[in-house]
Design goal:
The chain is of the alpha/beta class.
């Protein structure tokens, strides 16, 4: 019998755990920034949404409002490319933004937002979490990069079940689901 064990890890932690052999498979946010030989299946591109302190309003939040609030943002080491892209997007729009507090996990970010520390930029799927004191809002006037999601595994050796799981991802991508966040016909690639 196979019993999956789910463990929350940042992308860099997953790459290290794959290299050490302590995990067999991961779901991460590329680019990986590693020379480790991995099989990578792009799964989706997820848009970012603002999480702001509840203000009684509805609708989008502007880039100027986000800049005034400051950001609760993941550390640069956790996702250097996305981190830089977010800060560059503010700069290109003519807004200086400060990082009020670094945080590595979405629930920590949401707690800090609810406490009024700043705003967070999170994957749209986070909107499914009902969190008291937080309002999720689309961002008006800011072009942010999409957050890529990929399945990763060591190239070889690896348990057969990992090949089965990777095959499910490849099959789903080949079949296409029509979901707006689906990348499309991407196949298994290697890094």
């Amino acid at each position: 019998m196979i019993r999956p064990v789910l463990t929350e890890m940042a992308t860099n932690e997953q790459v290290a755990a794959l290299a050490e052999g302590t995990i067999d498979f991961g779901i991460c946010h590329p680019p990986l920034g590693s020379s480790e030989r991995l099989d990578i299946i792009p799964v989706a591109d997820e848009t970012l949404i603002a999480a702001i302190p509840e203000d009684g309003r509805t609708g989008p939040v502007t880039i100027a409002e986000l800049a005034r609030m400051g950001l609760v943002l993941f550390p640069a080491a956790q996702g250097p490319s996305l981190h830089a892209s977010i800060l560059n997007a503010f700069a290109e729009a003519g807004h200086d933004v400060s990082i009020q507090q670094p945080a590595t996990r979405a629930l920590t970010m949401l707690s800090l937002v609810a406490a009024g520390v700043g705003a967070a930029l999170l994957p749209r799927s986070t909107e499914r979490i009902s969190f008291k004191g937080v309002r999720f809002a689309p961002i008006k006037g800011l072009q942010l990069p999409a957050l890529p999601v990929a399945a990763i595994a060591r190239r070889r050796p690896r348990p057969l079940i990992v090949d089965t799981v990777l095959g499910v991802f490849n099959h789903s991508l080949e079949a296409g689901t029509g979901e707006e966040n689906r990348i499309g016909a991407n196949k298994l690639t290697t890094a």
